[in-house]
Design goal:
Chain lengths: ~325, ~325
């Protein structure tokens, strides 16, 4: 915290993402030598599927958190989209139609959050809290528990769409979205606005950024990503329940945080979120194969996040201070 | 004041529609009794939110402390169980406070990760089994004094205590000061680290008290009992007029909001409205109150802030 320490923060090769990646590699090597079957094709593919939907939504969450907002209605929102999909899927729509429906539904519902936050000025935390209650309440009223006996056209993505017959198609969707997100964060001026708003919303407004519009658009983008996640989740089986997405928002936020994005906003990279989501989606399976009861997986999740946060807290604190004092928020945000 | 009238209106309205709702036995024995656990945790949560922080781990602190306490009580008796429950609660809070104040991790991230940690510990230690109630906890959850459930006395006592701490003590002023401007508080000589650690410890401690009552009331507790508890508590605090960005709010608002939520959820049950619809009503009430508070109280809030600032400036 003192000035001399701040000065020594010059080298940038050993970034947080680097350490996190190293941890991931070490974890993989450790699992390779201590477990049998963790790297079996089936397990890897099922983990990849979990990773795909976790990452897609986490990227959306990352955008929101970079603007120093938050969305805790995501889990309930995804449940709503899943049920909507199942309802229209009963009519035998194909995958592309379902994807379109989910994207529109996601953008609309997330847009409501955005309107509450920007137009009515309710803090994101509270607005999305209220929305999550409304979603959670609305679901059991519309549907009695679950929608089942869904046609093969509905579960096409989950069961039939495999690349080379093994890799789930959700992985392809995930790769496309991650690539788009990386390009978007690197080259678009819109992404720079996100960092500017996250660092200092007032300064951003004075610099000519339409803060409200940007945040609203961020929620719309995130909504489409949540919609895609919901598609992957819902089409994984012939039965869609009303609690499909329950509590998922905490996992997404955890992936974003583990990836080095500060919930204070203004920092964070997509690549960090990728690694964070990968680590989190491996834990349940890893504990199983290590012979630890799955009852412990939540505790391990929590411990990993805490450890990573503690290790990085000092450097993050310094970065924040430097940004705060010299006002180079927009430049340093990008990459 | 608006909230108070809202509470009165809802009570009278439901009372007209379902007269049995307003009998003493039902109103005190069921409606108010239901709100105690959430209300107890909402008290320190108000303080935390006033400092600009948040605690997402309260529900799972509750579960973890109740479970460890219950397991100890099986072997060493009720008194030991009670002691361990409160100790675990305080320790969980201390851990949160330590990470937030000393390591300077943001409250949201800290309590999000400890939420997973406490949940996981509770689940791992019990291997998914339930923990059952014991004599002392049952007493706190089920006993009545002069027809009034004993936990209501605990709540009233705690509510008064927290009101005095927040509104009348130096410590309370320091909480507001931190919420308004943490750097300024440091420079004006407030030991912000100590203040924050204490406030998170209080939250842990109150969670464990709530845990005892809860365990007593329901006789058994599983690891997923704390699900959504944190959000319910935050709903109450925000409904009570405390600003989620910190620096503004008071305990009275939280108390009335607790009453409103307790009356709402039970009243709607009396009127045979499904549980799901109640959740919608809760969310809608929250949004409406926020929007109306924003428009009506904007000027008032500004005045209050200046009032709060004055004593700390001396």
């Amino acid at each position: 915290m003192n000035p001399t320490e701040e000065k020594s923060n010059g080298h940038k090769i050993l970034t947080r993402e680097f350490y996190l990646g190293a941890f991931l590699v070490a974890l993989l090597i450790f699992l390779k030598f201590t477990t049998k079957g963790f790297f079996a094709l089936n397990n890897v593919m099922s983990m990849l599927n979990i990773f795909s939907y976790t990452l897609i939504a986490s990227i959306g969450m990352n955008f929101i958190i970079i603007t120093s907002n938050i969305d805790i209605s995501t889990g309930a929102l995804i449940s709503v989209i899943c049920i909507t999909l199942a309802a229209v899927g009963k009519m035998g729509l194909n995958f592309w139609a379902l994807l379109l429906v989910s994207i529109i539904a996601g953008a609309l519902l997330s847009g409501i959050n955005g309107v509450f936050i920007t137009k009515l000025g309710i803090p994101a935390m509270v607005a999305t809290l209220a929305m999550s209650q409304i979603f959670q309440g609305a679901l059991p009223l519309c549907v009695d528990g679950s929608i089942y006996d869904l046609p093969p056209s509905f579960t096409w993505l989950g069961f039939q769409a495999k690349i080379f017959g093994v890799v789930p198609a959700s992985v392809l969707i995930m790769l496309i979205i991650t690539a788009l997100a990386l390009i978007f964060m690197r080259y678009s001026s819109f992404s720079k606005k996100l960092y500017a708003i996250g660092n200092n919303a007032k300064a951003a407004r004075l610099a000519g950024i339409n803060v409200n519009k940007t945040i609203l658009v961020t929620y719309l983008i995130a909504g489409t990503l949540f919609g895609i996640t919901a598609t992957i989740l819902a089409t994984a089986s012939q039965r869609v329940t009303t609690t499909m997405g329950s509590n998922l928002e905490m996992t997404f936020i955890a992936a974003v945080v583990l990836g080095g994005t500060s919930t204070d906003g203004g920092t964070g990279k997509v690549i960090g979120t990728v690694i964070g989501a990968l680590i989190l989606s491996m834990i349940t399976s890893a504990t199983n194969y290590l012979g630890i009861s799955s009852d412990w997986s939540d505790a391990i999740k929590g411990a990993i996040i805490i450890a990573s946060v503690i290790v990085s807290s000092k450097s993050v604190g310094q970065k924040k201070r430097i940004l705060g004092t010299t006002n180079v928020a927009v430049q340093s945000g990008g990459r | 004041m608006i909230l108070f009238f809202l509470w009165l209106t809802i009570t009278v309205l439901i009372g007209i529609l379902a007269p049995q709702f307003l009998t003493f036995n039902y109103y005190v024995g069921v409606v108010l009794r239901d709100g105690v656990e959430i209300g107890l945790v909402a008290l320190p949560m108000t303080m935390i939110i006033i400092t600009g922080g948040i605690d997402l781990s309260v529900g799972n602190t509750m579960v973890l402390s109740a479970m460890l306490g219950g397991m100890v009580a099986l072997r060493f008796g009720g008194a030991a169980g009670l002691l361990v429950t409160m100790l675990i609660g305080a320790l969980c809070g201390l851990f949160n406070g330590f990470l937030i104040a000393k390591i300077k991790v943001s409250p949201m991230i800290t309590t999000l990760s400890t939420m997973f940690l406490y949940l996981g510990l509770a689940r791992g230690i019990t291997k998914g089994d339930s923990v059952y109630s014991y004599n002392l906890a049952s007493g706190m959850g089920n006993m009545s004094l002069a027809g009034i459930p004993v936990q209501l006395f605990i709540y009233v006592l705690m509510a008064i205590l927290f009101y005095v701490i927040l509104a009348k003590s130096t410590y309370g002023r320091e909480l507001y000061s931190i919420g308004l401007n943490e750097n300024a508080s440091i420079y004006s000589g407030i030991n912000t680290e100590r203040v924050k650690i204490i406030v998170y410890m209080l939250a842990g401690l109150m969670s464990s008290v709530a845990a005892l009552i809860w365990l007593g009331r329901f006789n058994a507790l599983k690891y997923d009992a704390g699900y959504n508890f944190n959000l319910k508590v935050i709903t109450i605090v925000v409904l009570g007029g405390t600003s989620i960005t910190g620096g503004y709010g008071d305990i009275r608002g939280t108390i009335v909001a607790t009453l409103i939520i307790a009356v709402l959820s039970n009243g709607l049950t009396v009127l045979n409205i499904p549980v799901a619809a109640q959740t919608i009503v809760q969310g809608t009430v929250l949004i409406i109150s926020l929007v109306s508070l924003k428009f009506i109280n904007q000027r008032k809030i500004r005045q209050k802030i200046i009032k709060v600032k004055a004593p700390t400036a001396q």
